[in-house]
Write a structure and sequence with these properties.
The protein is mostly helical. 44% of the residues lie in helices and 0% in strands. The chain is built from six helices and no strands. It starts with 29 loop residues before the first helix and ends with a helix.
């Protein structure tokens, strides 16, 4: 009889919900999906059509928009030092990416999933 393998436990930490690539609603949108099903009843066919019928945007889109607005306001506030410097200020060169923020080095998974790297990612996306 083979010995039993020990169970492996993983620590999930405080990870941000990510958009799934297969078109299904994200974890944070599951509540909105249920609410749309309750509101529309038998007229509910899919999440995307329910959003257009009810004239709503998804919770993940609204969250991303609010976080981006907050990050832009943070750039122009007294708390600018919370964000990393522009790449141009580090290298002194004017390149295509010189107006983007330097991506912080994340030694731990906890810091990698914290707000500062997420806000930098949002600001650099546009």
């Amino acid at each position: 009889m083979a010995p039993k393998k020990a169970k492996q436990f993983s620590r999930k930490g405080n990870k941000r919900p990510r958009e799934p690539s297969n078109g299904t609603p994200s974890l944070e949108d599951n509540i909105q999906v249920r609410a749309c099903k309750i509101i529309l009843g038998t007229q509910y066919s899919s999440y995307s059509t329910a959003l257009t019928t009810l004239n709503l945007s998804s919770l993940s889109d609204r969250r991303r928009t609010l976080c981006r607005t907050f990050a832009e306001s943070l750039l122009n506030s007294d708390f600018r030092e919370w964000l990393p410097p522009l790449r141009q200020n580090i290298s002194g060169r004017c390149t295509r990416n010189s107006q983007k923020l330097d991506i912080p080095y994340c030694r731990t998974v906890r810091y990698k999933h914290s707000p500062i790297p997420y806000l930098v990612e949002l600001l650099n996306a546009c």
